[in-house]
Structure formats: structure tokens, C-alpha cells
Amino acid sequence: MGSVSIWTDGSCLGNPGPGAWAFYVPDIPHHEVGGEPHTTNNRMELMALAQALSWAKFHTQARLVVWSDSLWAIHCSNRLWKPKEHLDLFEPVWSLLHHLRGSRDVLLNYVKAHADSPQNNLADQLAHQEAQRQQSTARREP
Questions:
Q1: At 77, which helix (H) or strand (E)?
Q2: Which residue, 46, 49, 37, is CA-closest to 13?
Q3: Which of these, 7, 32, 134, 137, has the minimum number of CB atoms within 10 Å of its CB?
Q4: What's the rounded Cα separation, in Å, for the pair 133 and 93?
């Protein structure tokens, strides 16, 4: 069995502000997005990672290579750094990683943001578009 790459990104228009997360699986291809009307960029980066791992738990048994442009999310998820915030999201990420790593390799890799990675750029574009949708939805609500 080969490996599956998943590209994640978070976006926030203002920090805090309307934000979104996205992940993209080029081999299938498949992507998912979500957002919040008032959030932070770090929270959305972490949410992208959590959603990607949750998807992988149910959709593939392959080795996972997860890419993020957030060193903070990667290092905290791998327990190299101790997070001071968003513990409500780290607990599920740590649990998912523990579960997934029990049956396969799971690598969390860093990719430089806005560089020459078409997959990272697509994840960024998907997250940014959803953040814009969150912003326009928030403007219409009373």
C-alpha cells in the first residue's frame, strides 16, 4: 500500500476575524472546507489538520503524509512544542494521531506558504475563499 498526501491550510481575514480551514487530497482528488465567523489563523490551521486526520481515519489505510504551512500546528501536534492555547482542538488531534499511528505511519511535514507548491497553494485558495464566504455571511446576518 502506498501513501496518501493531504495538504492543509487555515485562513483568517483579520486576526481575529472570519476564518476558514481546508484540506486537499490530490490523489483522489478530494477536498473539504469549513469556517467560523470569528476565529484566529492558528485555530483554523489546527482545525484543518484535525479535519484532515479525521477524514483519513475513515477513508484510507495508507501511510499518511500531511503537509501544513504552520510550524506551530505541526510542532505542537507532534508534541515538540507545548501549546498555550486551543487545547480544545489539540486534544482531538493528539487522539487522532495516536489512533492513526497505531496502524500506519503518519508524517506531519512543513511546506513554505505561498511558495512553489501547487497543492499548498490550492489548499490556501480553498481556505481563503471559504473565509471570504464567512465574512460575507456575517455581514448579512442581523
A1: helix 71-77
A2: 37
A3: 137
A4: 26
How many whole angstroms separate alpha carbon 17 and alpha carbon 52?
Answer: 22
Burial of 103 (0-12, 13-18, 19+ CB in 10 A): exposed
- Match 483579520 to its residue by C-alpha cell: 14
The enclosing domain of 105 has a CATH number of: 3.30.420.10
Which pLDDT tens digit goes with each residue over 15-58? 999 999 999 999 999 999 999 999 999 999 999 999 999 999 99
- Is the Cβ–Cβ distance between 76 and 14 less than 8 Å? no
Instruction: Using a cut of 0.85, tell me whether the model's pTM lies above it.
Output: yes
Q: Which residues does residue 6 pair with via DSSP β-bridges, in sequence order? A: 66
Per the document, the length of the chain is 142
Phi, psi of 98 (to 5 degrees): -60, -45
Q: Find the domain containing 113 and state its range.
A: 3-140
Integer Cα distance of 126 and 129 in angstroms: 5
Where are any strands of DSSP class E within 28-101? 30-39, 63-68
